[in-house]
Design goal:
This protein has 294 residues and is of the alpha+beta class. It is 52% helix and 16% strand.
């Protein structure tokens, strides 16, 4: 395998490797670092002995992501206020032409699922991602992680139960989410308290992520009345001459607010039974930089 061929093989697999690393870490910059480290390992490997490049690359990436996740957990860094994953731009395109496959991919990268995955051990998270998001057989996951298949099945079962018990139910149909997102934006922009109340589930939550680096709620806001009033207040304090951009992030529609061309906030909604159940607001500037050119 020539150097050029090795580069082509790696680039062909880069979206897969980035998908694995991001789902493992919930952080775009860390995922990019892991993929870059995987490239260094790949470029320096004896590729003549690699029979299956895809398996080899996924194995390297998964192990590097596990190591990175263990380092993050060991540091135990204090975070100011609620934590959310970095927004991850998703454009599945031909990756998932089948509707069911697209829904599965969108669900596996959703903010709701990634928040729950933060509470799993690194190994549980790796098994869950490889099994649930990418459909790897248990035997193949066992080989990738150098674990017995029985142990991998136990990890998968434990992770699946944990996720099922803790993640909120939400609508994954992008068309429905887009329609309600448009209505939500219109009501918020107009300061229409009654209009917002009609869109919010009674037990709706608003989760703001800023790490204390931007103005945001430092606790989760609960109930339709409090969330609606909070949003109306926020709408009145938007940066001067803001512009809005609709994106696909984490498998669903999201709204990026820019001030002077720079990302200021990102909003995304979870929806169930035609009502907004969770409002996610990302304001941490460190998590917005990669959206500048979106």
């Amino acid at each position: 395998m020539t150097a050029d061929t090795a580069t082509d093989v790696f680039e062909d697999h880069r979206p897969l490797l980035m998908g694995v690393a991001y789902r493992m870490l919930g952080r775009v910059a860390d995922a990019e670092d892991v993929v870059q480290d995987a490239w260094l390992r790949w470029s320096g490997a004896d590729r003549a002995k690699v029979r299956e490049p895809r398996a080899y690359l996924v194995r390297i990436t998964t192990r590097l992501a596990i190591d990175r996740l263990r380092q993050v957990q060991a540091r135990g860094e204090a975070y100011v206020g609620p934590w959310l994953p970095e927004p991850y731009l998703t454009e599945f395109g031909d990756t998932a032409p089948d509707t069911a496959d697209r829904v599965l991919l969108a669900d596996s990268v959703s903010l709701a699922v990634l928040v729950v995955l933060e509470s799993l051990s690194p190994l549980e998270r790796a098994v869950f991602v490889l099994r649930e998001a990418f459909g790897y057989p248990y035997a193949e996951i066992a080989a990738l992680l150098d674990r017995g298949e029985a142990a991998v099945r136990q990890l998968a079962g434990r992770a699946r139960r944990h996720v099922d018990e803790r993640r909120p139910r939400y609508e994954v149909d992008p068309a429905r989410r887009r329609e309600l997102t448009d209505r939500f934006l219109a009501a918020a922009a107009e300061g229409d308290l009654d209009g917002l109340m009609s869109l919010l589930a009674p037990d709706v939550r608003l989760v703001s992520d800023s790490d204390g680096k931007a103005r945001a709620a430092l606790r989760i806001v609960h109930t339709a009345d409090k969330v609606a009033r909070f949003l109306v207040g926020v709408a009145g304090k938007l940066p001067p001459a803001p512009s809005l951009r609709l994106l696909e992030a984490n498998g669903g529609p999201a709204v990026l607010i820019l001030s002077d061309g720079k990302p200021d906030s990102l909003f995304q909604l979870d929806i169930a039974d035609g009502r907004v159940t969770t409002v996610y607001v990302v304001r941490n500037p460190d998590k917005m930089r990669h959206l500048a050119d979106s």
